[in-house]
């Protein structure tokens, strides 16, 4: 099983997840050209992608969706509310008929030898989801754009091998930064984004002996730094109410504008 961040940040998100025989993208929030170039670096092309699973309709998650759909005819999986919101926007252009497949939170989708499990997330979008992807006894998840989390979220992120988790902002940087008040409140609200501290606290609830790698993603360009996200999350894990220290795990930060490490388990 494999995972690779092609891009992850507030300016665009696209994550590859696959096995030896099945390949999917979670989001297509960068240009179609960048997606193709990113896939090429890990030995794939758009022709190898079996489906695109969309988390929600914001532009940093769908920017390249229309190009992929028109050029490659790749099936699109999303909640109905998300897809309708995508079509109402002007950013993706026309999507060919027959490519959309409706998903529902907590209802699994079989895609080749992968089982994709959508789960609801708290974000200011139509009906947003995160994704857990299972391959036999192996599992990976992508959980970004979380305003808050609770037992439901934790349960979907337990017993993972690999987790890509949002660490969007440093609270102090956001509070003293140049964003207008309403935008600061949106980001800090229950339908906004996870701070570095909250990401570390969530990690404390899902870490286990056999977790192989954690990737911190969806960092804000204006209100975070990779080193700050890493150090804050590591401190929360080490000082948190759990039996682990951050050094017990491979924790990395996804790159905003370039392809990250291809993780294989």
Short description:
The protein is of the alpha/beta class and 265 residues long.
Description:
The protein is of the alpha/beta class. Helix content is 29%, strand content 24%. The protein has nine helices and 14 strands. A seven-stranded mixed beta sheet has the order 6-5-4-3-2-1-14. It has a seven-stranded mixed beta sheet with strand order 7-8-9-10-11-12-13, covered by helices on one side. Strand 8 and strand 9 form a beta hairpin. The longest helix is centred in the C-terminal third of the chain and has 14 residues, at 226-239. It is globular and about 50 Å long. The termini are close together. The mean pLDDT is 97.
Strand order of the largest sheet: 6-5-4-3-2-1-14
Largest sheet: 7 strands, mixed
State the end-to-end distance.
5 Å
User: How would you describe the shape?
Assistant: globular
Strand content: 15-25%
Q: Helix coverage percent of residues?
A: 25-40%
Q: Overall mean pLDDT score?
A: 97
Poorly predicted runs: none
Counting DSSP E segments of at least 2 residues, the number of strands comes to 14
Structural class: alpha/beta
**SSE ordering:** EEEHEHHEHEEEEEHEHHHEHEE
Cα-atom radius of gyration:
17 Å
Enumerate how many helices there are, as a single number.
Answer: 9
